[in-house]
Amino acid sequence: MVTTTPGQPGSDVRADGRVPEELVAAYREHGFVRVRGVLAPGQAERLRAGAEAFLAAHRAESLEKQGVFSQLVNVWQREQTLRELTLDRRLGRIAEQLAGFPLRIWHDQLLVKEPHNNAATEFHQDRPYWPHAGDRLPLSAWVALVDVPPERGCMTFLPGTQDRTGLRPQDLHDEDDLFAADPSLRWLPRVTVPLRAGDCTFHSGYTGHMALPNRTDQARLAHVVIYMDEATRYSGGAHVVTDPLGVAAGDRLDGDTFPRPWA
């Protein structure tokens, strides 16, 4: 277990390992919520060191080829320190508390913005990229391993957009693409959420969001655990996670590849 000590000062995680009901209500209304102190300071530092070592060895494997950020997927299968966070029971139970139904891990990813990358990850939804069928709202836990103020590339959300389903995948490098897909989203309020190391945001797979550029001397390191409805089936679409598995359209995405360690 790598999560914070129950009841730790400055943490939103209660002694019973759950978050207050007002955070659950905020997540369901707005499609995102910040949970402070998911990690204790010493734990965040240990995970940061593990992430840096893994990035140094595997940076060339990044799925993002345009230099906006480094994206390394299914790190939990190859790096023991970050595996502890991905499979952490308390984090999964909080995700289920927010979602309101059973979940499995879809995949994790290490997302890194290098110092002075000076490029935004533009507004998009996550769910249109995933080959899922028959599922309720997925959600992601975006855990900050370093302090992430706006100038280091924290995220900005479009509240309430978790209900905007059916859009095509968006171009992460085109600042107008999400708004071309749904022009009404352009005029919604935007909420920027800076995080301390060890804080986390949970956001729905349909909630529109973007990440600001990193204009600082320190890399922005975030570890993201993506959770899906336990009943999710494979749609048949292409994806780096499912392509090697030999699954057929309609198959349940379950088993050891998509674990539920908190069950």
TrEMBL record:
Alphabetized GO MF terms: 2-oxoglutarate-dependent dioxygenase activity; iron ion binding
Please give the InterPro entries that the UniProt record associates with this protein.
Phytyl_CoA_dOase-like (IPR008775)
Give the superkingdom in one word: Bacteria
The record's section on Pfam families has: PhyH
Which PANTHER family does this entry report, sorted A to Z?
PHYTANOYL-COA DIOXYGENASE DOMAIN CONTAINING 1, PHYTANOYL-COA HYDROXYLASE
Q: What name does UniProt use for this protein?
A: SnoK-like protein
Supply the source organism's classification. Answer: Bacteria, Bacillati, Actinomycetota, Actinomycetes, Streptosporangiales
